[in-house]
Every structure is written in C-alpha cells, then in structure tokens.
Amino acid sequence: MSAQIKVAVLGAAGRMGSEAVKAVTEAADMELVASLGRGDDLQQIIDAGATHVVDLSVPGSTEDNVRFAVEHGLHAVVGTTGWTEERRANLQLLLEQNPSVGVLIAPNFALGSVLASAFAATAAKYFESVEVIELHHPNKVDAPSGTAVRTAELIAQSRKEAGVGASPDATETQLEGARGAVVDGIHVHSVRLRGLVAHQEVLLGGPGEQLTLRHDSYDRASFMPGVLLGLRTAESMPGLTYGLDGYLELGQ
Fold first, then answer.
1. How far apart are alpha carbons 19 and 25 in whole angstroms?
2. Of 3, 7, 125, 200, which residue is most buried, by most CB within 10 angstroms?
C-alpha cells in the first residue's frame, strides 16, 4: 500500500474549506495534517509534515500561500479566485526553479462542470452564435465567475482554431452592462440570486436550432471529487496546470 497523502487545508473555516476538510478526512488514501484559517502561521504546514496543500482561502492571500508551498516543495491544489495572467506567469517562473512541484489552479472542481465546459468548446465551432450565463448565490464576491471566464476562453480558442467568426450582434444602443461582460469576444452574463449555489449555461445557436449545455451544483460536496483528484494527480503533473480539464482524459 502506497503512503498516504499528507494534506494541509488553507481556508479551512470557509464553506469550501470545511467541505475539503471533511473530504480529505474521509479519503482512505489521505491524512489531514493541518487546517489553517485566516492569519494562521504557514509554518504550521511544514511542522505538520504536509506534502500537499489545498488552498481555498481568499484572493488576497492565495498567491503568498501557493508561493510558500512551492518554495517548500509542496504540491498545491488551488480553488481560490484572483489568479490573473500576471500572477500565473509569476508562479510559472517560480515553478521553473522548483521543477518537481505540481500546482493545479482550478476555477471549478465539479467534474460535471469541467466536462460541460469542454463539451461547449467542442460544440462552439459548429454554431454561429454562443453566449454564457452563470448563476450563483448572492454571497459570491466576483463576477463573472472563474468558471465562466475559463469556459469563454476555451470556447474562444476553439472557434479561433476552427476559423469561426464572432457571434452576430446588431446591437447599436444599450444600457451599460446589458450585453454582459466580454471575455475573448464571448459574451458572459452573471446572475446573483438567493437559493442558488453554482450553475452555468452555454447557449449555442445556429439557423433553426439551439443547443443548451447546463451544469448545476446544488451542494458544495459536488466539488470534492475534483479536489481529491487534484491531490492524487498533482505530484505526477509537475509544473502549472490551469483548469481541472488538464487532469482529465478529454482527447483534446
């Protein structure tokens, strides 16, 4: 039997963090060695003998948390938002100095959501029009969601490679924000509504037909299989992986 994965969870007191603590504790091949909240000393991770870190903290802390992990040779699975292209580039440089370390930054850990985004990217090159709608609870602090941004990026890349032009849109006048945000040429709309958890629709349209790809997370437990997959895979995937799709066999 292989050695257990020794895991430290950062942001353990949050909604996602508490679910991760539970999931790691219940995983037969893992041992939860540290649970840290905001302001806790990161040295506790090293003292506890962690080999892997799950960062589910806050955008203002995540870069320092992951840098600490990488500099100490710990693999990291990251679900915290705020990872701009510049931050990811800085992390990539750091990982080049620590080539045995694997880091996964995942905008979404729900396997169904990741698959839906991949399916949307495949389908988008066959349809004239495409837009994204993401729906979340009103406590979410960022809009659009990281998942929606990632989905739009994948769609845009797929359409560009296939030589598909921009979606037709004759809008000449509009109230600010009426057409949503634009991510790599793809319109993304955000809804914040009490009672929701995390939901996304990709609308694809062509002459005489429409295809809708929708994923719904009704409970944060839906994210935990992806977190555990990340922990089990990070060591064998050194360097930076952006998006859980990088750990899945999607044939892309």
1. 10
2. 7
What is the mean predicted confidence (pLDDT) over 205-211? 98
Closest CA to 17 of 246, 238, 230, 227: 227
Return d(Cα 216, Cα 161) in angstroms, integer.
29
Question: pLDDT digit string (tens) for 74-120?
Answer: 999 999 888 988 999 999 999 999 999 999 999 899 999 999 999 99
Q: What are phi and psi of 189, to 5 degrees?
A: -115, 135
Domains of the chain: 5-105+221-247 (3.40.50.720), 111-218 (3.30.360.10)
Q: Which of 6, 52, 136, 215 is catalytic?
A: 136
CA dihedral sign, ordered 143, 162, 208, 176: positive
72 a known binding residue?
A: no
Q: Is the pLDDT of residue 195 over 70?
A: yes
- What pLDDT, in 10s, does the model give residues 16-48? 999 999 999 999 999 999 999 988 999 999 999
Give CA–CA dist 3/94, Å, rounded. Answer: 27
Mark whether 125 is an active-site residue: no
Residue type for position 182: V
Name the nearest CA neighbour of 222 among 29, 8, 19: 19
108 annotated ligand-binding residue: yes
Looking at residue 35, its amino acid is S
Q: How far is CA 113 from the centre of its chain?
A: 10
- Listed in sequence order, the residues at least 6 apart from 3 whose beta carbon sits closer than 8 Å to its beta carbon are none
> Is 80 annotated as contributing to ligand binding?
yes
Does residue 11 have a known ligand-binding role? yes
Active site residue 189: no
